[in-house]
Amino acid sequence: MDFVNDENINRYADFVKSLNGGGGKFYIMTFGCQQNEADSEKLAGLALLMGYSAADNPEDADLILVNTCAIREHAELKALSKIGGFKKLKKSNPELIVGVCGCMANESHVVEKLKNSYPYVSFTLAPGDIHRLPEIVAGILSGGKRRFETESDVHPGIIEGLPVMRKERHRAWVSIMYGCNNFCSYCIVPYVRGRERSRRSEDIIRECRDLVQDGCRDITLLGQNVNSYSSDISFAELLLGIAKIDGDFRIRFMTSHPKDVPDELIDVIGAEEKIAPHFHLPLQSGSDRVLSLMNRRSTMERYSGILEKLRRSRPGIAVTSDIIVGFPTESEEDFDATLRALSELRFDMIYSFIYSPRKGTPAAVMDGQVPYPVKKERMSRLLELQGAISLEKNKLFEGRKDPVLVDSFETREGGGICSGRNAWGKLVHFEGTSEMIGTSRDVRIDRAGPFELYGTIVK
Ligand code: 5AD
Ligand code: SF4
Asked: What is the 459 CA–ligand 2 centroid distance (Å)?
C-alpha cells in the first residue's frame, strides 16, 4: 500500500492563493452518505488552504463544489438538477468555477454528459482524487482547459494529512478505509470508489486522539465495509486501540457486512463501554434466493445467528439495517420472506430503498425487473410493518433517563428545542437552549414515536 503525503498540495494551494489574491469564496453542496460528508470536510479544508473562505450560499461563491452520490438514480437526478441551476450563476459571474466531485464524477457516462451538456461545469474530481483539487483549480485559474477525467489510478494508495474543515466540534467522521471489494450485484460503489484499502492503524488512532483532545465526544469510523479493515491489526483490535484513548467519548462505526462479523468483534462490542450500543448491519432481503442473486454471500440463518450473538454480548444493543425492495425477480413470496425477517429480527430502524438499476452493475441487466408500481406498493407495506416495530422498540425507552449528546437547536415560540442522539443512536428532542449544542444532557423520555423520542431535561 502506498501512503502518500503529497507536498505538491501546498505548492498548488499557494499558487491559487497568489492568483485570486486570497479573496475568493467557496460553497460545497453534499449528497449521499457519511463518506461523502467526510470527503466534503476535506474539500473544504483544501479550499481554505487555497485562500478561499466559506460562502453562506452558492450565489456568493467563486468556487462551487458539488459532492455527488451515485447509489440510486434519484440521487443522481437531484444532483444534476442542482448543477443545472448554476448555469445562471456562471452567466452573471463568468469567473465562477463549478466542480463536480464524488461518486458521479467517477462514472464515465456521467462525466461525458457533464463535459458535453453542462458547459458551465469546469471540472470533475473522482473520490480518490480529492487531493488534486488545488492542482486542478490552479490549472483552470491560470487559463487551462476544462478538465474531465475519471479516477486516474495514479494514486491507488491513501493520501494522509489532508487539511479538514470540520463542521462540528463535538462529533466527527473518521474514514478508516476506502473502496469496496464485495461487488453486491446491485451496487455501483465498487466501480466508483475502487478496491478496498485501509489506513494505517497508528494514523487512525492518532487522528482520534487529536479529536478527543479537541473536545470531540462522538467519533464515527467510516468505511464501505469496516469489518474488512485490514492493516497490521484487525478491526476489533482497532476499536480496542481507540477505546483506550482517555476521555469521555463514544465510538460508532459503519457500515458492516454480514459475511464477515467475527466473534472477536462481537466480544469487543460486548466488553467496551466506549463503543456505542448500536450496530448497523444491512440485511437487504429476507429471501435467501434473492440474497444469492444479490451476491451477498450471506443467508438469513447466518444473519440471525450474528444478531443473536450480538444481543447476547451487549444486551439492549440497537440494531439497524438496510433493505432493498423490488430487486430483479423478487416475487411476492420473496417479499413475504423480507416481511417475516423484519418481524423476527426486530430492527430498531431500517433504511429502505426501492431498487434502482445502476448502469454497469450485473443486476441492471438481469431479467425480471420488477415494475415500479409493484415496488412502490411493497415499499408501503414494508414501511407500515417496520413503523410498528420501531415504535414498540422506542417505547422501551419511555420513562428512562439517559445522556443525550446535543447536535442542534431550533427556536420555537416561547423557547427552543434541542435535538441529539443517545448512545443507542436514537434521535431525541427536548426543550433546551442553543448553548447546549455539543454538550451531553440527561434526558428523561416522556413519549416515543416510530422515528424519534421526546423527553425532558433532568436537572
Ligand atoms: N438500488 C437501491 N438501493 C441501493 N443500495 C445500494 N445500491 C442500491 C440500488 N442500486 C442501498 C443498499 C445499501 C445502501 C447504502 O443503499 O441497501 O446498503
Ligand atoms: Fe456514498 Fe455510495 Fe453514494 Fe458514493 S454511491 S456517495 S459511496 S452511498
From this structure: 41
Q: Is the distance from CB of 212 to CB of 245 less than 8 angstroms?
A: yes
C-beta separation of 357 from 337 below 8 A: no
Query: Average pLDDT in the 278-305 region?
Result: 98
pLDDT in tens, 261-281: 999 999 999 999 999 999 999
For a mutational test of ligand 1's pocket, the pick from 35, 72, 303, 321, i.e. the residue with the most ligand atoms closer than 8 A to its C-beta, is 72
Query: 206-223, pLDDT tens digit by residue?
Result: 999 999 999 999 999 999
What are the residues whose beta carbons fall under 8 Å from the beta carbon of 68, sequence distance 6 or more?
Answer: 31, 32, 36, 75, 76, 79, 100, 101, 102, 103, 104, 105
The full DSSP string for 244-283 is TS-SS-EEEEE---GGG--HHHHHHHHH-TTB-SEEE---
**pLDDT at res. 191:** 93
pLDDT at 156: 61
Query: What's the CA gap between 420 and 323, in Å, rounded?
Result: 25
For ligand 2, the distance from its centroid to the CA atom of residue 414, given in whole angstroms, is 40
Report the separation in Å between the CA atom of 226 and the middle of ligand 2, taken as the mean of its atom positions. Answer: 15
- Mean of the per-residue pLDDT values of the chain: 95
Domains and CATH numbers, the chain: 3-141 (3.40.50.12160), 166-395 (3.80.30.20), 401-457 (2.40.50)
Question: What DSSP designation does 284 have?
Answer: B
Burial class for 431, CB neighbours closer than 10 Å (0-12, 13-18, 19+): middle
Q: What does R_g of the chain's alpha carbons equal in angstroms?
A: 23
pLDDT per position as a tens digit, 103-129: 999 999 999 999 999 999 999 999 999
